[in-house]
Queue: 4 jobs
Job 1
Amino acid sequence: MAYSADVNRWRGPAEQSYRPHMLDTPWHPGWIAVTIVGFLIWWPIGLALLFFTLGSRKMSCWSNGDRWQNRMERMQWKMERMRDRMERRGFGFGPPSGSGNRAFDEYRMETLRRLEDEQKEFHEFLSRLRHAKDKEEFDAFMSQHRQRPTPPADQPQS
């Protein structure tokens, strides 16, 4: 059974017994007929009905509040499907595979490990440097705060 048979075009699942009225949906056959008759009688009437139909905000592209969420989910699904196809054909997105030269692969792995260690050490150094700078600023603030005279307790503060 096709999906279109399970879903009422205007209201959702087929188990809901609902027949839409002409004013409930812009794509009701009555609206289409009235718009065509409007064009036949006098073209500005048909044009006005067409613009009313398009601008009524009842069209499906505007009534769906989570439109962008649906698009993002669809794009994620397509990206995963493409990634699976590429991996099946040998174009993986994971870590690089071996080059075939064992000595070069060992050298590359050792170099990458060393660079990661240096990066980790550098981030730790920056963290210690920021901490020392913050401590120095805080100590300077506290020394200024301690040097300020405190007002006598018998004078009311305003």
Job 2
Amino acid sequence: MPSSSGPLIRFYLGEATDHCQRTIDDIWALPPFWLEHTHDYIQWLFPIPEAGRFNGFAPLLDERERAWFADSNELRERHRRSLDVMLEFFGLTHNSDEIVPLPNLNMREHIWLKRGGHNHLRITRIIRSLNLCHQGELARAFQQAVIEIGTRHGVVSEHSIHYWRTATQDSGN
């Protein structure tokens, strides 16, 4: 592991807060309404190399942070915990090695099933982050699930599906 950690790694390990003084545990405990209507936490939970337009304060994922994720089971486990929070928000869950819809999945409460919207951008970010943070298998499982479930239970646009399909083309693992 690299010798010193930056703000992203300290946040992920529960040793520091984000730009709004929230810990990762605080974010994990937030209700779905808050997760839907707040836009500055997803960049901390699912970092990628590019800055998002909603949160210039979030650190970017660079090679040093990627090395930390590669070397730390704890970081990868905490990253999976972030995914679990978002899966529940999206009306999904893990079932062994696949991601499946919860019984209450519906378009009214899970608006990612509708055409377009900021949740489609979040999904792309999550797939890319998982892939770049050395969780390629999980990235592909999530990718496959949102494509299949989004087209079967929703009206997800082909444009969004294209982004989801290409989100694992980054050199992850």
Job 3
Amino acid sequence: MTFRETASAAIILALGLGGCTSMNTSRAQIVKNPQHCVDQTVQIYFEAESAELTHEGRQVLAAAAAQSRPCKVAGVEVLGLADAVGAPDANLELSKRRAQSVTAALAAAGLPAAEFKVQAIGDVGATTPGGNSRPLRRRADVVLHLQPS
């Protein structure tokens, strides 16, 4: 290779590498890393007439608690629900126990300290205006309000 060919190759290589650097900067301006501390919503389902967490429910809560550890937990909302089967008073009590089970499991899973808002509505809203049962009402809805620490 002649001196001129070597110099041309070096210039092309330098320009090419310089372009890669500017490409990374441009990419960083366009593509944002996902935020890890955004609110999370999970639903925990229960067996009929039960407030005992299932294995799957415990796994979902443990995963939510683990994902929230690097964040500041600004608050947690837990809403217990029940289906329309049974007496309204019994359904309200069942939905309270479901919300309490979820709250205890979150604390046991290591969720950072936070203010909890725990509510239960029993079977309110469990039927349509036409009297049909709404599906999937044996659950607790959980919202973790997360902020960067």
Job 4
Amino acid sequence: MRRALPALVLSIAALIPVWRYTPSTGASAQAPPSPAEALSPDAPPSDSSASSAPPNSPSESSAPPSSPSGTQVIAGSTVPTAKGAVQVEVTLTAGRITSVRALKAPRHPQTTAALPQLIESTLDAQSADIDAVTGATITSDGYKESLQAALDRKSGT
């Protein structure tokens, strides 16, 4: 009996932090921008909750109208891959690809390293006909498919 009381008190004292614990809601914490966002300086910051629209939403089903300056911003389709969903947004000025931004990308080291290379290749080639990045083939294929969908929307096909 002499040992039971201290054991009980210490057990309760150990549980107090667990009872007082309040999990964070994640509302104030923001992820750092992806390398793809860092490469397109004119792109607005991405909000992960805003990119959760259904893949067949009306905004993705047709090409957006051109602005008076001839600039179009077109989101490609969301492509599910084994590593996670991939979606890109293409900015076209006077028919040329001027920037590409990843709206959705897997949080994976190979993907993080591959996106800047894929974007650079896209800007050089001015099309979705680019080579996959070694070590990130799955992400590269999803990127190219989403990019091609965006370019198809531009031409209205």
